[in-house]
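Quick review question:
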């Protein structure tokens, strides 16, 4: 067996396959020094390593090649495997082949982790499952636990488009929350990205259940691909959906076979923003599909304060709230973050561009953001997008020194500046510099929001590392 990529998924795969008596080879573009923690965790296993590249030698005598999520199905090593007729798989596919219990898979462009975690809490509150297993793309591959699972358990997994593009097995309950442009740098087009997401439904049977967000046209359109029953969710009741979750007079309700039961009032939700309201509706629809009672749903919602790096309150300092939304790796997610606040915003944007459209975010930021601090590889592109979308024409006024200065909107460099009106754009090199600039700009009553709209890979290993660095920098502010 060959494993390409020794991240979390590769590490779990290596241990599992070795435990089954397989001869395992691991290859990674990184070297031994970078991979030292992962290799140390596997030191007791007879693994053959090919590091600092992906040589075709790793495929010799291989029955199957397992790709980690970060490895494209079009990577040279994957193409070489196909040429040799070697099966290509991943940890999620193998888990679904082995799982002894009912499985739930959740995908979508936004909200996957929040819905997965909240549904896990609901299932844990219910009495019908001896054990609830939550994992997948959120950091703990469920393959690590598959041998401890029982037939009456339930396994709830977040699934990414990277994993789905290879998979030929679907979970018994499969959700597509929404479909908006994301990962186009990997998939090449919105059509290819959407097709990858839709695969979560393609291998279901008539006994299985699909859960779809009807407020998203692309997700709702997948109803025709559902082989079995279909549940829906959204803000307003839609005709034609027998089983669903929606709002009714300010209350989240569950509707099943003509019976409507209230779950919780909107005013009781702890998570901000309409996108989180959609997330709660999705979790309730999935819980309904699993037969979880309303009491268990409500108890979980009341105790759920969110997931790290998702509009996470890091600190309040001198009347300024500092918010970590590092999970926002696409403009669509940053747009949702902006709409979650009704106070003045200092918005931190930047990282590595994913070739996604920025138009709607730029328009919203020009209307609702007081300062935008942009950083990283994509800083110049983002500044240009924001500047072009600003409603007011650029004006010039005489600064005190006699030099001319942009106002409303403006792009400035590193020098300290007075408060702008209405939007000012600040270009800095790194996220640390962005935090320091934001600290200069923020006033009591503001929220400083890290919601980058970009991947983290120019400066950080992943969005979690970026969020952790933001927390650290904010904690250091005096």
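Suggested answer, residue by residue:
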């Amino acid at each position: 067996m060959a494993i390409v990529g020794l991240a979390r998924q590769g590490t779990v795969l290596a241990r599992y396959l070795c435990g089954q008596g397989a001869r395992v080879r691991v290859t990674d573009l990184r070297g031994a020094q970078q991979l030292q923690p992962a290799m140390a965790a596997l030191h007791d296993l007879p693994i053959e390593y090919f590091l600092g590249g992906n040589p075709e030698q790793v495929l010799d005598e291989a029955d199957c090649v397992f790709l980690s999520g970060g490895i494209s199905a079009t990577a040279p090593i994957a193409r070489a495997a196909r040429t040799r007729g070697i099966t290509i798989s991943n940890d999620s596919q193998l888990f679904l082949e082995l799982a002894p219990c009912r499985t739930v898979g959740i995908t979508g462009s936004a909200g996957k982790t929040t819905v997965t975690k909240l549904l896990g809490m609901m299932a844990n509150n219910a009495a019908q499952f001896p054990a609830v297993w939550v994992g997948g793309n959120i950091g703990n591959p469920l393959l690590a636990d598959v041998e401890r699972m029982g037939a009456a358990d339930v396994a709830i997994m977040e699934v990414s488009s990277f994993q789905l593009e290879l998979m030929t097995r679907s979970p018994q309950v499969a959700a597509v929350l929404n479909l908006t442009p994301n990962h186009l740098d990997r998939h090449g087009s919105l059509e290819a990205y959407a097709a990858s997401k839709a695969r979560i439904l393609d291998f279901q049977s008539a006994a299985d259940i699909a859960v779809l967000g009807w407020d998203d046209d692309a997700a709702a359109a997948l109803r025709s691909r559902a082989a079995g029953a279909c549940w829906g969710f959204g803000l307003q009741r839609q005709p034609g959906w027998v089983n669903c979750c929606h709002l009714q007079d300010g209350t989240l309700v569950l509707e099943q076979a003509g019976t409507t039961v209230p779950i919780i009032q909107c005013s009781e939700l702890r998570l901000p923003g309409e996108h989180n309201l959609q997330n709660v509706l999705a979790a309730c629809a999935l819980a309904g599909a699993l037969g979880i009672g309303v009491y268990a749903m409500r108890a979980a919602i009341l105790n759920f304060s969110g997931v790290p790096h998702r509009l996470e309150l890091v600190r309040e300092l001198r009347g300024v709230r500092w918010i970590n939304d590092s999970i926002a790796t696409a403009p669509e997610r940053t747009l949702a973050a902006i709409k979650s606040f009704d106070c003045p915003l200092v918005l931190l944007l930047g990282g590595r561009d994913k070739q996604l459209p920025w138009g709607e975010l730029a328009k919203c930021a020009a209307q609702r953001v007081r300062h935008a601090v942009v950083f990283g590889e994509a800083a110049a592109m983002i500044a240009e997008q924001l500047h072009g979308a600003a409603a007011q024409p650029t004006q010039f006024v005489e600064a005190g020194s006699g030099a001319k200065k942009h106002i409303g909107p403006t792009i400035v460099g590193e020098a300290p500046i007075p408060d702008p009106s209405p939007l000012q754009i600040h270009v800095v090199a790194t996220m640390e510099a962005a935090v320091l600039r934001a600290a200069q700009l923020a006033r009591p009553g503001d929220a400083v929001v890290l919601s980058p709209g970009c991947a983290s890979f120019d400066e950080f290993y992943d969005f979690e590392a970026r969020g952790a660095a933001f927390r650290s920098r904010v904690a250091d502010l005096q």
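Why it works: The first strand starts at residue 2 and ends at 4. Residues 392-411, 414-420 have pLDDT under 50 and may be disordered.
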